[in-house]
Amino acid sequence: MLKKSDFYFDLPQELIAQDPLEDRSASRLLVLDKETGAVSHHVFREIADYLKPGDCLVLNNTKVIPARLLGEREGTGAHVEVLLLKRREADVWETLVKPGKKCRPGTALSFGDGLLKAQVLETVEEGNRLIRFEYKGIWEEVLDRLGEMPLPPYITHKLKDRNRYQTVYAKYEGSAAAPTAGLHFTRELLEQIESKGVNIAYVTLHVGLGTFRPVKEENILDHHMHSEYYQISEEAAGKINGAKGAGGRVICVGTTSCRTVESAADENGIVHAGSDNTEIFIYPGYNFKVLDALITNFHLPESTLVMLVSALAGREKVLDAYREAVRERYRFFSFGDAMFIK
Description:
Shape: globular
CATH topology of the largest domain: QueA-like
Structural class: alpha/beta
Radius of gyration: 20 Å
Number of helices: 6
Oligomer: single chain
């Protein structure tokens, strides 16, 4: 049995990065050889040295929406926080509400002095609420004005520039969290990589807050994975399959890109264009159908993300590399440093 505690490591609180670096590509980069377990230390912009002509770099171009709304319950004026998780239909969203107990179906909410109004429709799985919003004008503009970036719970500092929780190639709105491995790339670095003859394929997976949900069961197979929407274009599928067919490597940027290509691949490792929802849970014992290498950040102890990287490089090698990163004072989590598993 694979136990949650098998993926524990000791992480000092002060290593959790609270602010992004001034220069995205100046993060540190730990390179882990998944065959030997050898580790070396670099600066992120040196990632280009590890990419070869014919490789395919897969990036998730989802865009984080300012999904955190602070308002009040009408009639009482009591504070309420609403986190937009998933659009169900035009103005109806599945949300996470705090405090939830006070927001029963029928409760009326108000945000921005009535600029945005809402009504709780029903309670759905895991205590989430379906809410219908009412407003004048364009939804995106109202949200842009009233919403805040939904930073992970372990980041306590206020974000000065909301674009820093967005990749430079973010395009399609729909995420409640950033695909953080991509935060290290600058446009200049991507141009340098392309000029080397590396193909860049963009896929879309809208990241849900389930990505931060802790694994509660000791037997990890009892953990229920959250569902996320993804889309792969014909062009992206062609680039990924072309690289694979010609003997190049498919290198995913982030666990979200990894989960997207692995979900869209058939048993022969051919990626198919289209859109779907995925609940794929990757843990040791999983055979990767498409991915050859992974660029990722450092993840929470006992999280599904640590389990995914352990599936690729082996649990012991990953935990040894993490312990080395702690010794070397790497910065952890969303605004932290990066790791390349080759």
